[in-house]
Protein 1
Amino acid sequence: MTKTGIHFIQVTLVELNFKLNKKFKLPKGGIPVEINFDQKNTYSRDKKTLTTHFSATLFHKTKAPPFKLKVSVEGTFVGDDAKELRNFSKIHAPAHIMPFVREIIGNTTMKANIPPLLLPPFNIKALFSKK
Protein backbone atom coordinates (compact mmCIF):
# COMPACT_ATOMS: atom_id res chain seq x y z
CA MET A 1 0.00 0.00 0.00
CA THR A 2 1.39 3.39 -0.99
CA LYS A 3 1.24 6.35 1.28
CA THR A 4 0.20 9.60 -0.38
CA GLY A 5 1.09 11.94 2.43
CA ILE A 6 -2.28 13.67 2.07
CA HIS A 7 -4.55 13.83 5.11
CA PHE A 8 -8.28 14.56 5.28
CA ILE A 9 -8.53 17.11 8.10
CA GLN A 10 -12.20 18.07 8.22
CA VAL A 11 -15.47 18.39 6.37
CA THR A 12 -17.78 21.34 6.92
CA LEU A 13 -21.37 21.91 5.82
CA VAL A 14 -21.38 25.50 4.54
CA GLU A 15 -24.80 25.72 2.89
CA LEU A 16 -28.05 23.80 3.00
CA ASN A 17 -31.08 25.24 1.27
CA PHE A 18 -34.24 23.14 0.93
CA LYS A 19 -37.70 24.12 -0.22
CA LEU A 20 -40.51 21.58 -0.40
CA ASN A 21 -43.20 21.95 -3.05
CA LYS A 22 -46.30 20.89 -1.10
CA LYS A 23 -48.43 21.08 -4.25
CA PHE A 24 -46.28 18.57 -6.14
CA LYS A 25 -48.08 15.60 -7.67
CA LEU A 26 -45.91 12.79 -9.01
CA PRO A 27 -46.69 12.13 -12.68
CA LYS A 28 -47.41 8.54 -13.69
CA GLY A 29 -44.04 8.09 -15.38
CA GLY A 30 -42.17 9.77 -12.54
CA ILE A 31 -39.67 12.55 -13.08
CA PRO A 32 -35.95 12.45 -13.74
CA VAL A 33 -33.73 13.78 -10.98
CA GLU A 34 -31.94 16.89 -12.20
CA ILE A 35 -28.68 17.31 -10.33
CA ASN A 36 -25.73 19.58 -10.96
CA PHE A 37 -22.38 19.35 -9.23
CA ASP A 38 -19.79 22.06 -8.85
CA GLN A 39 -16.30 22.04 -7.41
CA LYS A 40 -13.83 24.79 -6.57
CA ASN A 41 -10.38 24.31 -5.06
CA THR A 42 -8.40 26.86 -3.08
CA TYR A 43 -4.92 26.52 -1.62
CA SER A 44 -3.11 28.08 1.28
CA ARG A 45 -0.21 30.42 0.53
CA ASP A 46 2.33 27.69 1.19
CA LYS A 47 0.34 25.32 -1.10
CA LYS A 48 0.19 22.65 1.63
CA THR A 49 -3.49 23.01 2.51
CA LEU A 50 -6.28 22.35 0.02
CA THR A 51 -9.88 23.37 0.58
CA THR A 52 -12.31 21.75 -1.85
CA HIS A 53 -15.74 23.37 -2.05
CA PHE A 54 -18.18 20.80 -3.47
CA SER A 55 -21.85 21.53 -4.09
CA ALA A 56 -24.88 19.73 -5.43
CA THR A 57 -28.02 21.47 -6.68
CA LEU A 58 -31.17 19.48 -7.34
CA PHE A 59 -34.10 20.51 -9.54
CA HIS A 60 -32.71 24.00 -10.13
CA LYS A 61 -34.16 24.27 -13.67
CA THR A 62 -37.08 21.85 -13.34
CA LYS A 63 -40.51 23.49 -13.50
CA ALA A 64 -42.77 22.47 -10.60
CA PRO A 65 -40.25 20.07 -8.97
CA PRO A 66 -41.02 18.05 -5.84
CA PHE A 67 -38.44 20.17 -4.02
CA LYS A 68 -35.38 22.32 -4.58
CA LEU A 69 -32.20 21.62 -2.68
CA LYS A 70 -28.69 23.00 -2.64
CA VAL A 71 -25.97 21.62 -0.41
CA SER A 72 -22.39 22.84 -0.24
CA VAL A 73 -19.64 21.13 1.70
CA GLU A 74 -15.98 22.00 2.14
CA GLY A 75 -13.29 19.44 2.72
CA THR A 76 -9.86 20.38 4.02
CA PHE A 77 -6.81 18.34 3.11
CA VAL A 78 -3.11 18.82 3.92
CA GLY A 79 -0.04 17.45 2.23
CA ASP A 80 3.66 18.20 1.89
CA ASP A 81 3.89 18.08 -1.90
CA ALA A 82 2.02 20.88 -3.76
CA LYS A 83 1.98 18.97 -7.07
CA GLU A 84 0.61 15.83 -5.42
CA LEU A 85 -2.05 17.91 -3.63
CA ARG A 86 -3.05 19.59 -6.92
CA ASN A 87 -3.42 16.19 -8.64
CA PHE A 88 -5.39 14.91 -5.64
CA SER A 89 -7.76 17.90 -5.86
CA LYS A 90 -9.09 17.00 -9.30
CA ILE A 91 -10.72 13.64 -8.58
CA HIS A 92 -9.88 12.30 -5.14
CA ALA A 93 -10.91 15.33 -3.08
CA PRO A 94 -14.50 15.45 -4.42
CA ALA A 95 -14.68 11.64 -4.21
CA HIS A 96 -13.88 11.90 -0.48
CA ILE A 97 -16.52 14.60 0.03
CA MET A 98 -19.31 13.00 -2.04
CA PRO A 99 -20.47 10.54 0.68
CA PHE A 100 -21.13 13.48 3.01
CA VAL A 101 -23.19 15.24 0.32
CA ARG A 102 -25.10 12.01 -0.40
CA GLU A 103 -25.91 11.56 3.30
CA ILE A 104 -27.11 15.17 3.69
CA ILE A 105 -29.43 14.86 0.67
CA GLY A 106 -30.85 11.53 1.89
CA ASN A 107 -31.43 12.78 5.43
CA THR A 108 -32.88 16.12 4.35
CA THR A 109 -35.43 14.51 2.04
CA MET A 110 -36.32 11.92 4.69
CA LYS A 111 -36.90 14.65 7.29
CA ALA A 112 -39.20 16.43 4.82
CA ASN A 113 -41.49 13.40 5.12
CA ILE A 114 -41.04 12.42 1.48
CA PRO A 115 -39.32 9.31 0.15
CA PRO A 116 -35.61 9.83 0.81
CA LEU A 117 -33.55 10.55 -2.26
CA LEU A 118 -30.60 8.18 -2.12
CA LEU A 119 -28.06 9.16 -4.74
CA PRO A 120 -26.30 6.30 -6.48
CA PRO A 121 -22.52 6.10 -6.67
CA PHE A 122 -21.08 8.48 -9.24
CA ASN A 123 -17.95 8.17 -11.33
CA ILE A 124 -16.35 11.42 -10.17
CA LYS A 125 -13.63 11.22 -12.82
CA ALA A 126 -16.19 11.01 -15.63
CA LEU A 127 -18.35 13.66 -13.98
CA PHE A 128 -15.63 16.31 -13.87
CA SER A 129 -13.86 15.34 -17.07
CA LYS A 130 -17.04 16.42 -18.93
CA LYS A 131 -16.47 19.98 -17.70
Protein 2
Amino acid sequence: VAQPNTLTGSIGVFGLLFNAVPVMNEYGVYVSTVNSNTHADIASPLKKMTPYERNVIQQGVEEIYGTFIAHVAEGRGMTVEQIDAIGQGRVWTGENAKEIGLVDVFGGLDDAIAIAAQKAGMESYQIQEFPEKGKYQEMMETLLTDTKTDFVKEELGFSYKYYQNIKTLSKMKGIQARRPYFIDFE
Protein backbone atom coordinates (compact mmCIF):
# COMPACT_ATOMS: atom_id res chain seq x y z
CA VAL A 1 0.00 0.00 0.00
CA ALA A 2 1.41 3.37 -1.00
CA GLN A 3 0.35 6.79 -2.20
CA PRO A 4 1.25 7.60 -5.83
CA ASN A 5 3.84 10.12 -4.58
CA THR A 6 5.18 7.97 -1.74
CA LEU A 7 8.90 7.27 -1.92
CA THR A 8 9.05 3.48 -2.12
CA GLY A 9 12.13 1.35 -1.54
CA SER A 10 14.92 1.22 -0.95
CA ILE A 11 15.70 -2.40 -1.51
CA GLY A 12 19.25 -2.34 -0.28
CA VAL A 13 21.43 -3.07 2.74
CA PHE A 14 24.39 -1.20 4.15
CA GLY A 15 26.48 -1.45 7.27
CA LEU A 16 27.83 1.40 9.34
CA LEU A 17 30.67 0.85 11.79
CA PHE A 18 32.88 3.49 13.30
CA ASN A 19 36.15 3.76 15.14
CA ALA A 20 35.58 5.57 18.46
CA VAL A 21 39.24 5.46 19.54
CA PRO A 22 40.25 8.92 18.22
CA VAL A 23 37.28 10.55 19.99
CA MET A 24 37.92 8.62 23.19
CA ASN A 25 41.61 9.51 23.12
CA GLU A 26 40.72 13.21 22.83
CA TYR A 27 38.91 12.86 26.15
CA GLY A 28 41.77 10.97 27.75
CA VAL A 29 40.15 7.53 27.50
CA TYR A 30 42.48 4.79 26.30
CA VAL A 31 41.49 1.18 25.73
CA SER A 32 43.45 -2.05 25.86
CA THR A 33 41.81 -5.30 24.83
CA VAL A 34 42.49 -8.97 25.30
CA ASN A 35 40.95 -11.32 22.73
CA SER A 36 40.37 -15.05 22.68
CA ASN A 37 41.28 -15.10 18.97
CA THR A 38 42.54 -12.77 16.24
CA HIS A 39 39.15 -11.43 15.15
CA ALA A 40 37.09 -11.67 18.34
CA ASP A 41 36.59 -7.89 18.27
CA ILE A 42 35.89 -7.65 14.53
CA ALA A 43 33.11 -5.03 14.75
CA SER A 44 34.35 -3.25 17.85
CA PRO A 45 34.27 0.55 17.80
CA LEU A 46 37.37 0.38 19.99
CA LYS A 47 39.80 -0.25 17.12
CA LYS A 48 40.37 0.43 13.44
CA MET A 49 39.26 -2.40 11.15
CA THR A 50 41.82 -4.27 9.10
CA PRO A 51 41.23 -4.79 5.36
CA TYR A 52 40.46 -8.46 6.09
CA GLU A 53 37.85 -7.51 8.70
CA ARG A 54 36.32 -4.92 6.36
CA ASN A 55 36.00 -7.65 3.70
CA VAL A 56 34.32 -10.04 6.17
CA ILE A 57 31.83 -7.34 7.20
CA GLN A 58 31.14 -6.52 3.52
CA GLN A 59 30.50 -10.20 2.78
CA GLY A 60 28.02 -10.25 5.67
CA VAL A 61 26.21 -7.20 4.29
CA GLU A 62 26.01 -8.84 0.86
CA GLU A 63 24.68 -12.06 2.40
CA ILE A 64 21.98 -10.11 4.24
CA TYR A 65 21.10 -8.33 0.97
CA GLY A 66 20.79 -11.68 -0.79
CA THR A 67 18.47 -13.01 1.91
CA PHE A 68 16.48 -9.78 1.89
CA ILE A 69 15.89 -9.75 -1.88
CA ALA A 70 14.99 -13.45 -1.76
CA HIS A 71 12.26 -12.65 0.79
CA VAL A 72 11.07 -9.67 -1.27
CA ALA A 73 11.02 -11.80 -4.44
CA GLU A 74 9.00 -14.52 -2.70
CA GLY A 75 6.56 -12.01 -1.20
CA ARG A 76 6.10 -10.14 -4.49
CA GLY A 77 5.91 -13.25 -6.70
CA MET A 78 9.01 -12.20 -8.63
CA THR A 79 12.46 -13.66 -9.23
CA VAL A 80 15.52 -12.67 -7.22
CA GLU A 81 17.02 -11.30 -10.43
CA GLN A 82 13.97 -9.06 -11.01
CA ILE A 83 14.15 -7.70 -7.48
CA ASP A 84 17.91 -7.17 -7.70
CA ALA A 85 17.40 -5.27 -10.98
CA ILE A 86 15.03 -2.81 -9.25
CA GLY A 87 16.91 -2.89 -5.95
CA GLN A 88 20.50 -1.83 -5.29
CA GLY A 89 19.30 0.94 -2.98
CA ARG A 90 17.06 2.64 -5.56
CA VAL A 91 14.00 4.59 -4.46
CA TRP A 92 10.80 4.78 -6.53
CA THR A 93 7.66 6.89 -6.41
CA GLY A 94 4.58 4.94 -5.35
CA GLU A 95 3.28 5.17 -8.90
CA ASN A 96 6.51 3.73 -10.37
CA ALA A 97 6.63 1.11 -7.63
CA LYS A 98 3.14 -0.05 -8.57
CA GLU A 99 4.18 -0.32 -12.22
CA ILE A 100 7.21 -2.50 -11.35
CA GLY A 101 5.34 -4.70 -8.85
CA LEU A 102 6.49 -3.36 -5.48
CA VAL A 103 3.08 -1.89 -4.59
CA ASP A 104 -0.31 -3.57 -4.89
CA VAL A 105 -2.75 -0.71 -4.29
CA PHE A 106 -2.78 3.02 -3.64
CA GLY A 107 -3.91 4.09 -0.19
CA GLY A 108 -2.78 5.26 3.23
CA LEU A 109 -2.10 3.84 6.68
CA ASP A 110 -5.77 3.22 7.39
CA ASP A 111 -6.05 1.23 4.15
CA ALA A 112 -2.96 -0.81 5.03
CA ILE A 113 -4.36 -1.58 8.50
CA ALA A 114 -7.73 -2.59 7.01
CA ILE A 115 -6.03 -4.91 4.51
CA ALA A 116 -3.90 -6.46 7.26
CA ALA A 117 -6.99 -7.00 9.44
CA GLN A 118 -8.82 -8.60 6.52
CA LYS A 119 -5.88 -10.92 5.79
CA ALA A 120 -5.84 -11.86 9.49
CA GLY A 121 -9.58 -12.66 9.32
CA MET A 122 -10.51 -9.89 11.76
CA GLU A 123 -13.93 -8.30 11.38
CA SER A 124 -13.40 -5.73 14.13
CA TYR A 125 -10.24 -4.27 15.64
CA GLN A 126 -8.89 -1.24 17.43
CA ILE A 127 -5.61 0.60 17.09
CA GLN A 128 -3.43 1.51 20.05
CA GLU A 129 0.04 3.01 19.75
CA PHE A 130 2.91 1.68 21.86
CA PRO A 131 5.08 2.23 23.73
CA GLU A 132 3.55 4.75 26.06
CA LYS A 133 6.57 6.48 27.58
CA GLY A 134 7.01 7.79 31.09
CA LYS A 135 8.98 10.92 32.06
CA TYR A 136 11.96 8.89 33.37
CA GLN A 137 12.19 6.90 30.13
CA GLU A 138 12.00 10.08 28.04
CA MET A 139 14.74 11.70 30.16
CA MET A 140 17.05 8.67 29.84
CA GLU A 141 16.47 8.48 26.07
CA THR A 142 17.33 12.17 25.74
CA LEU A 143 20.50 11.73 27.77
CA LEU A 144 21.61 8.69 25.75
CA THR A 145 20.73 10.38 22.46
CA ASP A 146 22.75 13.50 23.32
CA THR A 147 25.79 11.39 24.28
CA LYS A 148 25.51 9.27 21.16
CA THR A 149 25.09 12.39 19.01
CA ASP A 150 28.31 13.88 20.40
CA PHE A 151 30.28 10.72 19.54
CA VAL A 152 28.80 10.46 16.03
CA LYS A 153 29.40 14.18 15.33
CA GLU A 154 33.04 13.84 16.36
CA GLU A 155 33.55 10.69 14.31
CA LEU A 156 31.80 11.87 11.14
CA GLY A 157 33.04 15.47 11.26
CA PHE A 158 31.97 17.34 8.12
CA SER A 159 29.83 14.36 6.98
CA TYR A 160 27.62 14.59 10.09
CA LYS A 161 25.19 16.91 8.31
CA TYR A 162 24.48 14.19 5.72
CA TYR A 163 23.91 11.63 8.47
CA GLN A 164 21.60 14.11 10.24
CA ASN A 165 19.57 14.63 7.04
CA ILE A 166 19.11 10.88 6.60
CA LYS A 167 18.04 10.48 10.25
CA THR A 168 15.52 13.33 9.88
CA LEU A 169 14.06 11.85 6.70
CA SER A 170 13.67 8.43 8.28
CA LYS A 171 11.51 9.90 11.08
CA MET A 172 9.20 11.93 8.83
CA LYS A 173 5.64 10.72 8.33
CA GLY A 174 2.93 11.52 5.85
CA ILE A 175 3.06 12.64 2.25
CA GLN A 176 6.26 14.40 1.24
CA ALA A 177 7.78 15.91 -1.87
CA ARG A 178 11.59 15.75 -1.62
CA ARG A 179 14.47 16.78 -3.83
CA PRO A 180 17.19 14.17 -4.36
CA TYR A 181 19.73 16.60 -2.84
CA PHE A 182 20.16 18.94 0.12
CA ILE A 183 20.90 22.64 0.02
CA ASP A 184 23.38 23.73 2.66
CA PHE A 185 23.98 27.39 3.47
CA GLU A 186 27.19 28.23 5.28
